[in-house]
Structures are given as structure tokens and as C-alpha cells.
Fold each of these.
Amino acid sequence: MTKTMFVTGATAGIGAAAARSFVAGGWKVIGTGRRHDRLQALAAELGETFHPLELDMRDSESFGAAIGALPEGFAAIDLLLNNAGLAPPMSNLQDAEQAPLDTVIDTNVSGLVALTRALLPRLVERKGTVINLSSVAATYPYRGGAVYAGSKAFVRQFSLGLRCDLAGTGVRVTSIEPGMVETEFTLVRTGGDQAASDALYSNMDPMTAEDIAGTIWWVATLPPHLNINTLELMPTNQSWAGFAVHRH
Ligand code: NDP
Ligand code: 8X3
């Protein structure tokens, strides 16, 4: 039977690459995001096994109706890929504005929880899989990234806790925790500064969205008795810088 993935944030980066690879692998894909034009372009590219769905992760009250209105052929969900997310501008908290932080928490944390809750009955019915995009930032803090890192640490621990809740249902849950992937992530984080994004990823061979899509495919297509709990991956040229010590 053809399987169906529900992927949030299919309009760019990792989500778009995952939508492409799952359609190529014979799955049906429901792809969400806020940008209408991007969703329509993806639908034109991928054909009838892709269903575009405009959804804002901050508007959890819309989730029930959106899911309830899915066409019959896309109603049974085998895989939820909680991918939509973003980081606020890099800033020490003492210098940060509150609104961008709220956007990140509403999207990366509250929206993810609400959507997962809304789709769980369908996932339980199909003994499906939940794959959540966390980050290396969940484990390794860096200056200016406290709220983003906190949101991704939530995603990681939420994933593990959800496994406990779903014990015995056959539903698998995985937290995927990448390091640097060249997507629109840094463009969004910097408010559209393409030069800053290019500089961050220059001469270090970052991971690509396709690298992560391939990892997601691997996790999702393992035999049903195998659950990858957490999976951390980095570009070879990214590692750690050690502790900062302030001397007075
Ligand atoms: P992109 O910026 O390329 O893509 C982000 C996606 O999230 C877009 O499709 C965007 O869609 C969607 N999104 C953002 N806000 C909302 C919202 N309010 N409602 C609906 N969709 C939303 O970034 P990536 O592909 O890199 O990021 C994907 C995930 O991977 C994120 O959770 C990110 O934190 C995580 N990650 C990324 C890493 C990296 O280095 N790139 C490393 C580790 C983790 P639209 O704007 O159309 O709504
Ligand atoms: C973002 C990963 O390494 O760019 O989630 O901070 S990194």
C-alpha cells in the first residue's frame, strides 16, 4: 500500500528536499508552509502524489480543520516530519527583542506539539513514524542562540518523552539533530542577508538539504521493529570550539 508523509515546511530547504525524495521513492506527500507560490510550484513539479497545504505553524487553531479537510487519498498518515522551524537573529538575550523569540517558540515548540497531537490518532492507526528536526544546538550551546537552542532541546526531549507515551502502539519517534546545512535557514536568521549566509557556509562543505533528506528516508524506511531515538550529524569541517572563559 502506498505510504503518505505529512511534512511541515516543504517550501524550502530540508522539507522541500524531503518532499522530493519521498515522492521519488513512491510515497504520497502532504507538504505545508505559509508561502502559497512555493507550494504551488512544488505541486506543479511533483504532480498528483503531492498535496500542497497552506498552514502557519503559529496558528494551531487551524490544524483540526486543515487535517479534517485532507482529500481521501491523503487522509491516512504514515509519517509526520516535523521540519518547519526557524531561528531568531543571533543576539544575546539581554539585547534581544521579544517578538522574534515568541515567533520561534510558537513555531518550533508550540506549533510542533499541537500538530503532533492533532495527527497522532492517524499515526497510531497506521503504526506510523514521527521524525522531528532538532539540531546540534540542542546539545551544544553557542552565544546568541539561547532561545533557538532551548527550542531544539525541547524538540529532542519531547521526542524521547513521546516515545514513552506511545509505548505499545508501534509508532516510532526520532529526533534528527543536524549541524550546519546550507538552506534558507541563515537567510531567515539574518533577516535576508545573503552575503552573511554565503560567508557562513563558504569553504567548509556544509551539509545539503539532500543529505538530511537521505537520512530522513533511511530512518523512515528501517524495518518497523527498529527505532532510531536520536541521530546527530555534522559536516566533517564543523566541530566544537571549547569553553569561553571571562577574566576580570
Ligand atoms: P529553511 O529556512 O530553508 O526552511 C524552513 C521551512 O520552515 C520553510 O519551508 C518555512 O516555510 C517553514 N516555516 C517557518 N516558519 C513557519 C511557520 N510559521 N509556519 C509554517 N511553516 C514555517 O530552513 P531549513 O530547511 O534549514 O530548516 C528546517 C528545519 O531544520 C528547522 O526546524 C531548522 O531549525 C532545522 N535545522 C536546520 C539546520 C541548518 O543548519 N539549516 C540545522 C539543524 C536543524 P514558509 O516560510 O513558507 O512558511
Ligand atoms: C542550526 C545548526 O550548527 O548552524 O540548527 O547552529 S547550526
Amino acid sequence: MDIFLKSLDEFKWETSSAERIKSGANPRTQWKQLVDKDICDSSGISVGYSKIPKGEDLPLHNHKPQEIYFVMKGSGFLLMENHKLKHIKEGDIVFIPENKYHGIKNSGDCALEFLFIFTAERWKDINYNFVSNQT
Ligand code: FE
């Protein structure tokens, strides 16, 4: 298998499908899928880059696979169960255990951008459960 190398600029921004929006996804939050089985034949890992516009959020949700966030730009709050919040900013890393509820609110003055890493082969196969009325 060959080593895969590409620039972030080469990937296209994606937005949630109508189905995901219906289940609670924010239509204004975007992402780029960077590494997964279909893109570079990776196994057991996938990576993406997400952008939450100023004032927007990635609503509280959970999923089976573990996830890591690495905040690249901006600041805001990490949303957790029971309305708990933690301030997050550029340079912060977050580990989310299996099935743990989490989300991000951008409360800064620019877009909040972060890398997300999953122990899953494809992001599109991950089942998101949004808690639309808890944030
Ligand atoms: Fe998540």
C-alpha cells in the first residue's frame, strides 16, 4: 500500500444530508473527510476536518466509536451530558470514550476548526444520535 499525502486545500467541504439534518445535525457546520477506507484504504481509522461558523454548533450527540478532537482554530465550549460545559480553544485535544455524549459550541469571534479522528473505517457508517433539546 502506498503512503497517502495531500493538502487540506485539495479536499471539498461537505455538509449534512437532509436525513442527518432531520435527525438533529446542524446544516451550517461543514467538514472535509481526509482519511478513510474509501479515500486511502486505511483500516480501523478515519480522520476529518470540521468547521463550525461563528455562533453555530455541532449539537450534543453520541456514537459507538471513540473519537478525538484537536482544535486547530478558534474557541468555544465542549458540550457534555447534563448541560456541562468546558471551555476549549486552539491547541486543545479532547478524547471522547465510546458512547459518551459530546458536542461543540462556537462562542468565539471566528470559525472554530478542528480535526476529528475516529476508530472507524468510514465516517459515513457511524450512527450519530443527536440530543436536539439538551443543548
Ligand atoms: Fe462526535
